[in-house]
Amino acid sequence: MVVLRQPCCGSGIPDAEPLRSYGLPKKQAEGDPSTALVLWQRPTCCVFVVCEVVVGSRMNLSGGWMRAGTLYRSLKTGLMLLVVVELLWIKPLWAQSAVPLSPEQAYEIRLSQLLAEHLTPYLPPTVSPDNQQQTAAISSPASASASSDAPVGDKPVVSPLTNSAADMPLAVAEFYALRNFRPVWVSRDQYQALIQAIAGLAEDGLEPEDYQLTRLQQGFFLVGDMAPEVLPLRLADELTATTAYLRALFHLYNGKVDAEGLHPQWQFSWSAMGPEPWRQAIATAVTSGVVTSGAIDDVFARARPQHRIYSGLRAGLLRYRQLVDDGGWPALESGPTLKPCMIDPLIAVLRRRLAVSGEYQPPVADQRPASSSLDSAAGSLPPQVRKCLAAAPPAAITSKTGTSSTYAPSSSAASQQGEQVDVDNAQSALLSSASSSPASTADASVSSLPAINPDEVFDEYLVEAVKTFQREQYLEVDGAIGPATRAALNVSAKTRLEQIRVNLDRARWLLHSIPPEMVLVDIAGFKVTYFKASQPIWRSRVQVGMAYRTSPLFRSEVNYITLNPTWTVPPTILRKDILPKLRKGDLSYLRDNRIRVLNRQGQELDPASIDWQRPGAITLRQDAGPKAALGKAVIRFPNSHAVYLHDTPHQRLFEKSQRAFSSGCIRVERALELVQLLLSDTPGWDAAAIEKALATGNTRNVILARRVPILLAYWTADVIDEHKVVFKPDIYARDPVLLAALNRRD
Predict the structure, then answer these.
(1) How far apart are CA 578 and CA 587, in angstroms?
(2) What Gene Ontology biological process does one annotation of this record name (predicted)?
């Protein structure tokens, strides 16, 4: 900025736009900005004026100038002589020689004028100066620090923005308006810092080319070039750089994909979840001087969600990107179910597969001497392999033929016919010692033992690795490689990499303003967690909506609990599930399930009197009871889907690994424990009071003294430590849709 010394007896307030921040008076700014006056201070003039004001005022208050005396007249005469000498000796103010601006300053001023001409049409109507302070406060939380650069006169109205490419011109215009249209990218260090930060967005699962990385790299060479013919190119590069900068901030703060446009069920209110993202990004971009200092990485770091899940996903993304670069992992060919203690070449492939992804850790070599003739015949096989060999009758050992063979202990639970593995029997076989087989039997089999590759034996360490994989993938934990486990193992490292990218964007949707106390329903993970002070204090399994009756995603607040609830059958279930039964004449379904038929007035009707082909305006309501669909309690919260959390009589379904069984509502295991936690701050409703109310069998609503936020969310990757990412089944097939939107170029 050009700093000019102002005349002490002039206003010195430059008011030309957009060059006010450069310190130029209005006439100078509106003319040729290549020169500026150096304004001399006039000390004698100042003293003269002070004396005129002070002594003159004293004269007036005293009743006339005669009372001031000779001293005043002498002082005034002397000061007048000094002023005449000063004016004759020094050139008049308007004749002072002009000091030229540096070429860089003049170039920035001209670029600023072009920015104003280009961006002003995108700005909304202006507000009066009386409202400037309020508007600036809305635009920036640090408006006090930015007020010194605020222009005198009208200021653009801050308008609502959405995460849309159509809003970028307005966002860029507001950004420059808050900076008085001063250019940003005027040094190579700044520009290079931006390029590096944009390239680093790949670590967030974003595509740097979405932010014009190649174009920015080309524009780098024009920074500092002040040739007149380059000015239009500099203007274009300035706007490209700022658009990329703001766009990256917006996407880091709010996610690249518009969740509401992607999911019709999405009902998260940003006014409730956190600051409006575009406004927050502009405020961050303008304040604290980080742009001019070149600390772009710091701005981007603050825009990311400050949450361990997000940092863990970023670390996982780097790891999986390295796995992809290294070639990923091998795939298992189709074939029969692989079971503990089997011998098959595919088991060596399985071992390599799980070693690459980290579930399998090779055991420390056992150097103990062989303890039996079977061990001697098997040579220096690892002890876990010797256990498998010793657990089976020698006659069950089959020699290899061709390129594949299988071997398993001869038991009905581990036969080679492809039936389900009995895990307990398989584990018993693995844990039995070699000495448990009779020595004579082992000796008789020595000559018939085939050459064994230890890597091809499904030993106990590999079984544990398989179980770990199954547990982390929400599969049935049986230690065997059946169709579901094989399919999960064969998902490529590249696909897992893209899955992490998808969930990074989901994390940007949600993680900025997670309340410290809340109930969080993890739909894809089939679990619910209650947080207090941002720490989990209770967890349980849940059953969620089926793939064709999905549980919706939204945020609300738990406001009351229903004990001994009745159940009003939703229209969808009535139409698709119950009416087909009743139209076949099976009215016993209503009696067996204690379901009443009601008319519009709530009066009970005789089911036999209704034409079930055209039942009309009826309601089916199930009585409260131990077999009621909603169990003993319902946790209610406002939403447009008639969805809630509730107890259920279907307790056995919680033993399944994947639990998408409901018609959209969330069935909670140990639901009464959650009810007690939610009512802990409600006077008169401790555990004993809840049990007493339940024992009456009467339906009762209990309003919470304090509402508790609840989030129903969907994500398909979890972080279990700083470097470990695990994956869930995409039960609603939403990942491909989000990935396509994430990869789309605007």
Answers:
(1) 10
(2) cell wall organization
